[in-house]
């Protein structure tokens, strides 16, 4: 499969949609605690990727704050294509 920018941008959008759907779904199913738990679980998963993302972003002179924010929002769908050279920043 050819790795394109378009593919990775869709993956990033999917990551953000997961955050939204966890919260919205929890409230729609009248189980907001479950929605928040899933939201926080995804946030913790992305938080565990920050160290790797720093190793990828620092050599490309990306500010640490940007690396952390993008990793928390998009997870590996941001730093992996950056490491592969598909995305510049």
Helix/strand layout:
Blueprint: H1 5-28, H2 32-47, H3 50-57, H4 64-74, H5 76-84
Could you list some keywords that capture this structure?
89 residues, mainly alpha, 0% strand
In words, what does this structure look like?
The protein is mostly helical and 89 residues long. It has one domain. Helix content is 76%, strand content 0%. The chain has five helices and no strands. Helix 1 packs antiparallel against helix 2 (32-47), helix 2 crosses helix 4 and helix 4 (64-74) crosses helix 5. It is elongated, with a radius of gyration of 14 Å. The two termini are 22 Å apart.
Summarize the model shown:
The chain is built from 5 helices and no strands. The protein has 89 residues and is an all-alpha fold.
């Amino acid at each position: 499969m050819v790795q394109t920018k378009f593919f990775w941008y869709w993956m990033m959008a999917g990551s953000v949609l997961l955050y939204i759907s966890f919260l919205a779904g929890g409230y729609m199913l009248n189980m907001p605690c479950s929605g928040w738990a899933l939201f926080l679980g995804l946030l913790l998963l992305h938080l565990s990727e920050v160290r790797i993302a720093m190793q990828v972003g620092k050599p490309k002179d990306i500010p640490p704050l940007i690396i952390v924010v993008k990793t928390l929002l998009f997870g590996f769908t941001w730093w992996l294509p950056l490491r592969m050279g598909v995305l510049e920043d």
